[in-house]
Amino acid sequence: MILADTSIWIDHLRGRTTEVQGQLAAGQIAMHPFVIAEVSLGSLKDRQGTFALMESLWQVKVAELDEVRQTIEAHGLYAKGLGLTDAHLIASCLITPGTQLWTRDAALDKAAEALGIQAALP
């Protein structure tokens, strides 16, 4: 499964990319509630439809805060330009076997690559 972060969803919702649609059609996109929450802060044309789609997707395991902190320490994720949501997404990928992270954020992508959870998508 592929966990698409907020940057991927924003590009998709603005019509800038077609990659998400293909992955959705293939049933490969997973969701994290923090991504839905971040998207909800933006201006959306079809809020109800967007959230219905996002909430219908398979959900990754959501890491507890102590798991996130342990992940940060164990993998040296501090001082790398990552935020709390980024760390949550990484931790969730690590505790949800077979899940890769898809992002356009350079720091998050670099961390995902180092941890072997980077989704190799455009």
Compact overview of the structure:
The protein is 53% helix and 9% strand. It is of the alpha/beta class.
Question: Which class do the helix and strand fractions yield?
Answer: alpha/beta
Please state the CA-atom Rg, rounded to the nearest Å: 14 Å
Helix/strand order, N-terminal first: EHHEHHEHHEH
Q: Which range does the strand content fall in?
A: 5-15%
What's the CATH superfamily, by name? 5'-nuclease
Low-pLDDT stretches: none
Strand order of the largest sheet: 3-2-1-4
Largest sheet: 4 strands, parallel
End-to-end separation in angstroms reads 16 Å
Count of DSSP helices?
7
How many individual domains?
Answer: 1
User: What is the assembly state of the chains in this entry?
Assistant: single chain
Mean model confidence by pLDDT: 96
Number of strands: 4
CATH architecture: 3-Layer(aba) Sandwich
- CATH structural fold name: Rossmann fold
Proportion of helical residues: 40-55%
Instruction: Label the overall shape.
Output: globular
Name of the CATH first level? Alpha Beta
